[in-house]
Specification:
The protein is α/β, with parallel strands linked by helices. The protein contains 16 helices and twelve strands. The protein has a domain of about 260 residues: Type I PLP-dependent aspartate aminotransferase-like (Major domain) (Aspartate Aminotransferase, domain 2), CATH 3.40.640. The protein is globular.
Length: about 475
């Protein structure tokens, strides 16, 4: 039976909320804002709580089990991060307060900037961008501003490998650039010969995801960067896969000029549901003046008797604001806590365990599923979700069947260069027991595909909602409950 809507549960006369007496003078509401009728459901408080609690149990989350969503790094969010983010000194402040009353908040932001600079190997960082995709757009706008400032307006192209993240072409196109697609070679690296054939003085830069969406560290990364720099272009690093590099390699040291950090991927802040995310951007010394501002800075160093004073500084050639106020502060607090508790050695361990977990799964599954680029992987890897002997089974069927085993499906059909791709990322937070359960489910599904393919084609069998028409669902959105016509 489908879950009843709150309108079906409604009963005239029930009240769930009693408003307190107003502590401010009443004033008339604007006439244009008033409605003659507002058909809200009438329910008691306990009915409302029970209804939404039941609905919440239908949502799968990392708190329930493994969430191997490749590229998205759905790692467990430590509860201590949430506890710190709820400290009253953080939640009861406002960005418009006088600076002297929020020095603790500014100090946290300043330290987070310094830590991200150290982790990434950059000279400057902005915390403003509200998500990784906005961080990408910010980075490309910085790239454009840099070239325009030098009077170099001939550069109209951005090079993007076909193993990059899907938002890279969108960020480039939105910034007014022509996107040049760079193919992948048989080893899963950027095709160096093709890259060199398109590197000229029209290239503004390249956007590189490394490790790439195949889960592989690009073996051509240094010559690729050198080729782009040689023609005067800049190198943008998509930092979404930084979870594999923490404490091991710094993108800035490799020659990356600009990179966004996904706080909701690498540093364990909440992810999903449309946000709030956070996508700080780090840049090389030559680009610091172009960062969006204002940026938290130590405006007075202080001494033994007087603490330092923190304020805001506007970069000399700033591209301007990209977010109201100064970014998603709550996400900054969570990421700060995560970094502070791990420290340098702990962050390196995060990357080592993420890579270990992925390679363990790859080793266990490579004889059951085809691996199109079979190399030692980083934090994730890609399988093909199909077999020649059962051509009717596709990746979607495998993913739907996984739901019957209580496992969230991996990313499907991405990257596009792999047919029926299953992109799997276990992260460092999963135990061997959890990984073994995932392998067991994947092996059982492979067996079922050959013996009872209809089980997969009709899956999922155990979920409250069966297979939906995903194209129709995307085109005909139903974003809220609607009153039931009882006549």
């Amino acid at each position: 039976m489908p879950e009843p809507t709150i309108f079906e549960l409604s009963s005239p006369g029930r009240t769930g909320v009693t408003f307190p007496t107003s502590d401010v003078p009443e004033s008339p509401l604007p006439v244009d804002f008033l409605r003659s009728d507002l058909p809200l459901p009438e329910m008691s408080e306990v009915d409302v709580v029970r209804h939404f609690t039941r609905l919440s149990k239908l949502n799968y989350s990392i708190d329930q089990g493994i969430y191997p969503l490749g590229s998205c790094t759905m790692k467990y969010n430590p509860r201590v991060n949430e506890m710190v983010a709820r400290f009253s000194g953080f939640t009861q402040t406002h960005p418009l307060q006088p600076l002297e009353t929020v020095q603790g908040n500014l100090y946290l932001m300043y330290l987070l900037q310094e830590w991200l600079k150290e982790i990434g190997g950059f000279a400057g960082v902005t915390l403003q961008p509200a998500a990784g995709a906005q961080g990408e757009l910010t980075g490309i706008l910085i790239m454009r501003a840099y070239h325009v400032d030098r009077g170099d307006t001939r550069r109209t192209r951005i090079l993007i490998p076909d193993s990059a993240h899907g938002t890279n072409p969108a960020s480039s196109a939105m910034s007014g650039y022509e996107v040049i697609n760079i193919p992948t070679d048989p080893r899963g690296n950027i095709d160096l010969n093709f890259l060199q054939s398109v590197c000229d003085d029209r290239v503004a830069g390249i956007m590189i995801t490394n490790p790439n969406t195949l889960g592989l560290f690009d073996q051509n990364i240094i010559p690729v960067i050198q080729a782009v720099h040689r023609v005067g272009g800049l190198v943008y690093g998509d930092g979404a896969n930084l979870n594999a590099l923490l404490g091991i390699a710094r993108p800035g040291d490799l020659g990356i000029d600009i990179m966004h950090f996904n706080l909701h991927k690498t540093f364990a802040t909440p992810h999903g549901g449309g946000g709030p995310g956070s996508g700080p951007v780090g840049v090389a010394a030559s680009l610091v003046d172009f960062l969006p501002g204002p940026i938290v800075s130590m405006v007075e160093e202080g001494d033994e008797d007087i603490p330092p004073f923190f304020g805001f500084v506007q970069p000399a050639k700033s591209i301007g604001r990209v977010k109201s106020f100064f970014g998603h502060f709550g996400m900054m607090v969570r990421a700060f806590t995560y970094i502070a508790m791990h420290g340098p050695e702990g962050l390196r361990k995060v990357a080592e365990n993420a890579v270990l977990n992925a390679n363990y799964l790859l080793a266990r599954l490579r004889n059951t599923y085809h691996v199109p680029y079979d190399r030692i992987c980083m934090h994730e890897f890609v399988l093909e979700g199909r077999w020649k002997e059962v051509p009717e089974i596709i990746a979607l069927d495998i993913s739907k069947r996984l739901m019957d085993y209580g496992i969230h499906p991996p990313t499907n059909y991405f990257p596009l260069i792999v047919h029926d791709a299953l992109m799997i990322e276990p992260t460092e937070t999963e135990s061997k027991d959890s990984l073994d359960y995932f392998v067991d489910a994947m092996e059982k599904i492979a067996f079922e595909a050959r013996t009872h393919p209809e089980w997969l084609k009709e899956a999922p069998h155990q979920t409250p909602v069966r297979r939906v028409d995903e194209v129709k669902a995307a085109k005909e959105l139903v974003l809220c409950c609607q009153p039931i016509d009882r006549e």
